[in-house]
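Researcher: Quick one. two chains, 446 residues in total.
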Amino acid sequence: MEKKELIVRENILGSNKKVAQEIRAKLAGRGVLCVNLMSAPGAGKTSLLEKMAEKLAPAHAMAVIEGDVETERDAERIRAKGIPAWQIVTGGECHLEARMIGKLFGGLPEKLDFLFIENIGNLICPASFDLGEHLRCVLVSSPEGDDKVKKYPEAFLTSDCLLITKSDLIPYLIFDPERVKKEALELNPKLRIFILSSFKDQGLDDFVAFLVERRKELATGHA
Amino acid sequence: MEKKELIVRENILGSNKKVAQEIRAKLAGRGVLCVNLMSAPGAGKTSLLEKMAEKLAPAHAMAVIEGDVETERDAERIRAKGIPAWQIVTGGECHLEARMIGKLFGGLPEKLDFLFIENIGNLICPASFDLGEHLRCVLVSSPEGDDKVKKYPEAFLTSDCLLITKSDLIPYLIFDPERVKKEALELNPKLRIFILSSFKDQGLDDFVAFLVERRKELATGHA
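Model:
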C-alpha cells in the first residue's frame, strides 16, 4: 500500500472506531445486543437471519440492518418474515462503516432486544471496521472448503464466534470441520464455534440460547 | 467515500491501468493468453486450475500466479500438479494489482502458452483492477446461491466469461442456473457462460476448447 493511501486509511479507521464506541455504549444502555455477521458472499447470513426470525423473534424483539453493494433483496427477505429491516446499499464500497449504522440509529424501534447487522459479503475488508457490535460472528460455509481460516485470518482473529454453516452439505464435500475448528482456535482461542444448517435446522437452538445468554450478560455488565 | 480517499483511489487506478496495458501487450507479443480468475473465497478457482493442469497442460505450456491474503497453500497445490506457480501474499490487501504481476514477469518460463492469475478470493474489490489479462473470468459456485449477480454487479460487468462452478451440488440446493444466466446476460450480454464441476469433471472440456480457441485468436490479432 502506498504511504498516502496508508495515512488516509489510518484516519478513516480512527474516526470509525470512535463512532463505533458511541453506538456500542448507546445500544448497551438500551439493553440491545448488537451482532455483526461477516462472511464471504453466499455463506448463509440472510438464511440464518430468517431462522432467527422464526426462533428468536417470537420471544425477543429483533431488527436487522442489511449491507449490500447493490439491491434491496436481503432486506426484503427479512421483512417478509415480519422483522423490521433497513438496507444499506453501498454502491461499490466493499464493507460497512460505523457512520452508516449511526445514520439509521434514530429509526430503530423503541422496544428492541437484538440488532443484527449483516455485513457486505466479503471475508476481508469488513474485518477492519468496528460497527459498534457487542458480538462479531464470522460464517464459513462448508462448500467454501476447510482451508479458509489461515488464508483470511483477520476475520477470525477479530471475531467472538465462528459459525460453520450449510452443515447439511458436508456429506457431499471433501470438508473436515475439525480442521476448520483447529485452525480457528489456533488463531483465536476465545472463539465460540457452532456448526449450523439453516436449511435442515441443525445447531440453531444452541446458537439462539447463546445469544440470549450474551444479552443477559450485557444487561448485567459482563458482556 | 471521502474526497481525499477518492483522489488517492483515482490515482492508483490510473497508474494500474498503464502497467496492465504494458503487461497485456508484452504477453500477446509472446503468444501467451493471460486469464484472470475472480470469485468469492471458496468458489473453486484453485480446483479449476488443478483440472487445467490435467486437461490443458499436456498439450500447452501453462503457468499460474496465485494471489492470497496469507499462506502459500494454493501455489503448493498447483506445483504438486507439476505446473510452475508463484504465490503473491498480500498480507491484508484485498485484491491484486498490475504492478504485483509486473514484478514476476522476468521469472516466467521462456515457453509459455497460458498464464492464469488466481485473484484474491473477493467478489468486489478485484473487479476494479485490470491485471493485464486478455480474458477475465468470474466464478460463482452453486452453493453461493442464484441471487449473486445483481448484488455484486461489477465483477460480472467487467468479465468475458461466467463460470458457474460446483454444478455437482445443484441437486442438493435451491439454485436455478437459469436465473444466474438470465441476470448475468441482462448485465453483460457478451458473457460466455460455462457450467462446470471440477469434482465430477463436467463442462471442463468445453472450457478448455474455448481457451485454446481464444489463444489462436490472440496469435492472429483477433482476441
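The first helix of chain A runs from residue 3 to 29.
Researcher: Thanks, that's what I needed.
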